[in-house]
Fold these 2 entries.
Entry 1:
Amino acid sequence: MKPERWQQIEALFQRALEHDSAERSGFLDQACAGDQSLRREVEVLIAAHEKAGSFIESPAFEVEARDLADEARQATDDSVKRAAALIAGQSISHYRIIEQLGEGGMGEVYLAQDTRLGRQIALKLLPAQFTRDAERVRRFEQEARAASALNHPNIVTIHEIAQVDSSHFIATEFIEGVTLRQHMTAARMKLGEVLDIAAQVASALAAAHAAGIVHRDIKPENIMVRTDGYVKVLDFGLAKLTERQAFAVDTEAATRALVQTHPGMVIGTVTYMSPEQARGRAVDARTDIWSLGVVLYEMVAGRVPFAGETPSDVIVSTLERESPPLACYSAEVPAELERIVDKALRKNREERYQTVKDLYLDLRNLKQELEVEARLERSLQSHASGREAATDSGGQAAAAAIGRESAARTADVGVAHPTSSAEYLVSEIKRHKRGVVVGLVTTVLALVTVVVVLSIASHSWISRPPKQPETSAAPVRSIAVLPFKSLSSDASDDYLGLGMADTLITRLSSMNQIVVRQTSAVRKFISPDQDPVAAGRELKVDAVLETSMQRVGDRIRVNLRLVRVSDGSSLWTGKVEEQVNDTFAVQDRVAEQVARALVPQLTGNEKNLLAKHYTQNPEAHDLYMRGRYQWYTSATDPAKKERAIKFFNQAIEKDPDFALAYSALADTYMDLASDAPPTETMPKAKEAALKALRIDDTLSDSHRSLGIVKAYYEWDWAGAEQEFKRAIDLNPNSPEAHSAYGRYLTVTGRNVEALAEMKRSQELGDPPSATGLLFALAGAHQYDRLIEEGRKMEPNAYLHSWMGVAYSEKGMHAEAIAELQKAASLSRGATLMKAQLGHAYAVAGRRAEAENSLSELKALAGQRYVSPYDIALIYVGLGDKEQAFAWLEKAYQERARRLWALKVNPSWDSLRSDSRFADLLRRIGLPQ
Amino acid sequence: MTPVAPTHEVTQLLIDWSNGNKAALDKLMPLVDAELHRLAHHYMRRENPGHTLQTTALVNEAYLRLVDQTHAHWKNRAHFFAIAAQLMRRILVDHARSRQYAKRGGGARKMLLEETMMVSPERRADLIELDEALNQLAAIDPRKAEVVELRFFGGLSVEETAEALAISAVTVMRDWRMAKAWLYNELSNET
């Protein structure tokens, strides 16, 4: 539009309005002078002006706030207008209907005038389908009256339960307020208010429970928030009418009763249903505690803890999943509130709050604490005198407030209530209109779904299901705990990251349902920039626990995140915060949270093991973690192993009963046995393992260590096998236990069993054990398969060494030598690899290089321990039987550990026909 | 769960925003959001059938919480008013937009509006449509758009608007009624 035209229009518009409406037409006729389009434009604006009324007269801020309020109220308003069955002015008994207030799961509610007593009451009409069974109605009445008779301020008072013609109705006090559902939808609630409301509901329930009444249907729709802040719990006893077959013998029928009718209604109900209700079991007071826990959670988080698209999904979630910590949704959730909600939402009701009174007390105490804190803060602020100080603290408080607000706002984004009151009510109305036939069909459908879902669900929590397809919803059956990342720059904390992970792994390993990758497998992911998904793929686990630690003042904060490996999604997050010097408390809470996130129901024994402290002495534990760090990062560095031994011994000094430290000591000594004479290390390993077992006979690792000592040092093969078996019994998920036993079986020639154990060990994901499989294949003389398997594995020195042996046996010398060169270089000079290479040179006819290797080893023996077995290996390659036997005899005298391979390693084949070889095997106790 | 930030903090954020600090907007939005919810909550709680509530006081209270108009940082009140109104417009329109988005598309919202209109004879503005229409108006007659921005989005009185724009109150009134009629017509034509 041209500016001149606009000005022209405006001038006419303004002037026309100065005229009375009667004169306007005449004025415009004259002013527009035949310009009809101009006139039309002005007339349109004048018409708009007349109609506009209060349009944009209220500020936008108010408009937006009203829209928000409308949204929350819309459903109620609409349904009231559409579904009123009783109309204003109509009377039922001596109640005159004023208007409909709403419609809940259990019938229409009206505001009515009690014409006898001249007061306003709420009148609820009960749907006929729930009142056909007279016995049920009687029980409902009995319970409802009993609850009302308690005269509790938070329980709605019932004036009358009566029947007029075929309709049953309840007349109760009229509560001026909104349901908790509407209240939550309208505005984000303050923590104080949340606690206040929850405490009032708990108080009502405590009184009811004391009178033997269980509500069974606690949900935001049944909780009224009065304008003055009072909370009233509605509908006590009403569940008695709906739980038609709740106490029937078969659970299917019970489930049907609970999940019947229209899906829209079901969602509203199952969301707050306790696990025992969802399973159709008989319920007690603790079911109300659960439901209140869900309501409490929803008030804080703005979403329900167990959500799903369909009722069946919600049930599965209720039965199987752990709720995300509240901290995920709201930044300022006190740890105590998190604990309270956790305790109310324990799936096993034995672990839940046992009485609602206890829950009530915890809520009240927390509320009081927060109030005291707030008062304290306020008085501190008002004491801060001086303008600068005042400005400063104000600024900080504001910054904090904004921080909280932003966090809360973020949390709000995407909040989806499981069913808005709108959806709920609409579906309710539909249900009423469609009638019985549709109801029946949906009942059957719901029944089918629920039974199927329940049977799937029950499998996955009772036992590990057989090979399920990898879908995104597949349960987590194996996890890897990555070394904790330290967010502080303090490098001295490095040991802590691995040490904490190690301790957590030890604890989690007690859970039978979940395979936990051992520290030996995850230690390589120690650098802080690990991609959890890549790590998880490599470790072949379903999920990875990623953890970061941060020191905040004198507190340590641990953030936990369980990442699904298949899609990188977060399955669960958790947070633990404790005093920095209380690593025990940190570890306890981390272990507990993670365990609960993974396995909803733990056995008593598992729980004990999860909570087990191997020492009460924090210093001892710290030294232990430092030692484990040295050991796990030692690779082929004997100096680190020595340092580890020093730490373990210091730990034992602090706590002579620290079984784990002895166990670790045994492991380390045994590891050193390749770099030191076995006579020096193995007795110490044995002593440490025995001490560990004397303190705690249930340590799988120590039994394994003892088995190794018995087998390869004492050549007590029968004794060793017992230890290995016990180690596996104690920790069936330990790849180390399986591979140690597999090695034993290989060495003793039981190849079939050996392969099975090695396979199991490989499934459990320990990379060193993977070469154990090759060892077993070499023992079984399956060279082609050995090479094939070896190609699939991640290369390491042992792998190349066994590949070299296999190629060598196949006469493929060039390949053999190439593999063994790699092995020697990867092992950074381990004498066994050098010896095996020397052997291969010799067999390939490259004698000079073989001699070279031999003299190199002999020279090395002057500087450090070289196993006589290694030297014998080159001699046998060179065809020098005499020297080979001489060195083997030496190895026998010092009980060289590698003699275990005598029967398995094909490199010795040329000696096997010699009686001296048979004699040697006999003396060692190996079968011939 | 959140105490309201002191007004001088909000004012500082306004200054930051007017100086081009985009992050200030992100901090302001939650504050406005909280106030909106607070007010909506009042409506919810008190406006039961039969109750009418004087809401002007509430709105004013909310504004006072959000903006400290006397703050010394401002070159002059007019400058402050202009910035505050501009910002409120942006935040409120975003707010309405995200609400609409949350309802999965505009269809649902349209229906809701029609029903609202059936109930109340007065037409309540759709902030998103209004924002667009206001942009069109600004292209034709920038001052009228400013008047609307200051009064409707900024919540200013006629006198304050006059002061902010350095025009007379009578002019504000004249601009206002023209703009209001034009906007009303625009919005009626659209729906």
Note: Residues 1-6, 47-57, 104-123 of chain B have pLDDT under 50 and may be disordered.
Entry 2:
Amino acid sequence: MRSWTFFLSALGVGLVFFLAALGLGNDYVFFAGYVVLQYIVLATAWNILGGYCGYVNFGTAAFFALGAYSSVALHKLGANVNRYASGFLADILHLILPLSLPSLVIVGGIVSGIVGLGMGYLTLRLRGVFFAIATLAMAVVLQTLMINWDFVGGSRGAYVIRPNSISAGPVTLSYIEYLFLVMLVLAVVALTVARLIERSRLGIGFSTIRDDEMAAEAAGVPTLRLKLIATMISGAFMGMAGAPLPYYLGYIEPSSAFGLPYAVNSIAMPMIGGTTSWVGPLIGAILLGSLQQIATVTISSAVNLLIVGVLLVAFVIIAPAGIVGLVESWRRTRARAAS
Amino acid sequence: MSIDLLMNAIVAGLLLGGFYAAVTVGISISFGMLDVVNIAHPAFIILGSYIAYIVNTHFGIDPILIAVLALPAFYLLGAAVYQLYYWAFERRGQEALRGLAFFFGLLFITEVGLILVFGVDYRYVEAVYIGPTWRLGFLDFPLRMLVPCVVAVLLVVGLQLYLTHTFIGRAIMAVAQDQLALRLLAVDPIRIKRIAFGISIATASLAGALLIIIQPIEPSVGREYIGRVFAICVLGGMGSLPGTLIAAMLLGIVESFTATFYGPSWAPAVAFGFLLLTLAVRPAGILGR
Amino acid sequence: MSQAPLLEVKGVGKRFGGFVALEDIDLDVKEGERLGLIGPNGSGKSTLVNCVCGTLHNETGSVRFAGQALDGLPAHRRTHVGLARSFQLPRPFMSMRVVDNLRVPLLYTVRRRSLLISSQKELDDRCMELLRQVGLDAKAKRMPSDLTQVEMRKLELARAMAAEPKLLIADEAMAGLSHSEIEDIIALLLRLNAQGVTIIMIEHIMRAVMSFSQRLAVLVSGRKIADGAPADVVNNPEVVSAYLGQ
């Protein structure tokens, strides 16, 4: 299937869900669905670097929060242009701000992508574990930065007032429906990009990095450049997924935006689904994401995070290739039995 | 700035650094010598803190004594974790991706498990040396910091003597470099690594007790130490205990200065700057070639 | 054709900690030449290959290739300019099928130079042709983990050949091969050489080296002790005592 065909069919499937949810007329479906979609983006983004290249990023929460905080910063700036700028600059800012949600998503992506590139540039020349450790530490530092940055609320957090609804021509959507729709499109874009990478020369290069960097270099693969590309794409999607968060929550503070659940889920979902193709993170995100949405209603959120942690450990030990791998080996066994 | 403020910042940094050495020494063994990237180490330390907390509040026993009594249990836990890690990842050559995810999962499970049992309230221990401060001229030596620092230095020195003066110790130092040579000496590298990993986790028991003496803890405190321990381990030259001690003191002083002159909320960022700088400029560490 | 050598190694030295792996190595290889590089285990042959190919960086000396200084160039750039090597211990891409292993140098090296291999079919044909040359065509769709050690060596060689190098360094490509397989590989390398590819063969199997090489260089303990016509080199008393005579 061509990428465009894939993109449009995936979008079609998503829209069917969207219309069905509209038909149900229950906002909770959108609130829960948004989270699952957000995890599809995060898991897919993580997998571009982790699954394809074999470089573990523990800092998903940092990239994600960076996207969220760039939205907050722009929101604050938009609300107080006259306090921070004057003259011509103020005129320009008045013209641009407030940015629409899709533009915020793009800004969040750019900010996180650049940070990813910088991180990668400093650590990717070394062994992979150093990159992993650096991302782990980066989350702590960015959190420290946000706690100390009063403009975006510091440790107290910041309120973001979201509109009740949004209209385009004859169509009027409630804001949560709109958020859901934006995240839906983002998820479809992320999956399309991941699938495109997998089938391209870039994807083959990524696999050689995961398998054996020395042999990859000897075959002519510019490994450092490819790793930087992967880190940038991966970081950018994480930032994009975070950009609408302040509008979804209405309130943002460092300890929730940098929450460990984002880091754990974005690793657990691809690992449980399977890391070698775009299908794995999708399956993992839908399964774990829905499970958690249902579990938070019935049991405490700590318990359901514990479940994710235990599932992650169990899968990496018992089924290293994830659900996709289990299905594949089951198919092979059946095919062998048939022949 | 006044000279006594400066001197006190240095003393506080050295005391803090001594404690950091105890927190890091386990990582220096597991990551530095065995090449096992145990990012869950801080979680084991927090576990040590909670054990000290429980026994201390129920029986009033000294937290350091509790940690010493718990050493064998932590050693066995470490040996078991390594055996599982070896069997599931190292043997298959999957330690890079899945092994890391495994330890990350352990870190997470421990943290969430502790939250479920103890909640997110801060817990602390009682001991005679928590509270009083020795004064030498204008220098302050809070016993709450001094005792952990002394214990930590004893721990590091003791381990260094063990590693350099016993057969098993030397085998541990050799295991990362030359597994083949060990086999020729009829030593099973896996057994050596299991012992070494057990020791590395055992140090977490002591480090945990020291941690809860220094500050009240809650389950997520461990995360703040991940950046620190790896920064120190790398800066110390990956697996050199003297290097670890020096690097820990250095970080302690820098953090103490940051806290004194810029405010404590910036301190966590220092370790990261340290780590990035080390990785970018001198990956072999201060004592490296 | 210019008289400047294709590969010029000048004063190359490399140490690991206190251990001197290479000391002041000079080595010229002319275009179209077949050079045999021999020496006992640990004499620095593979370290020299690694320094030439950019896998390791030499501390002293310089490497020039086709008139261009290679110093500081990362390994993949050296592959792009026409240096290819096989690894002594095979390092196949384990997650890719045998045939896909060969696509990597075709996509990342050959395609940079020309647009000759542009369609998917041409790519596949080229991979199959290379596999046929080393006798692995029957295993094209298998995974590297299904191959024997000997087959992995052949794959290693095929992957180096796939980069269409000017200079091919075959690092112990023949260890463990049977009599007739060695003959096949030598014939293959000779054919490549006849097409203009310069070849450095690192080998322990003296019969293979002697029948293949036009020139022989000997490394012992990180130093080059002899360089010349094979018949002269093997009769050189220093070589005999240091290497062959032991």
Note: Chain A has a mean pLDDT of 88.
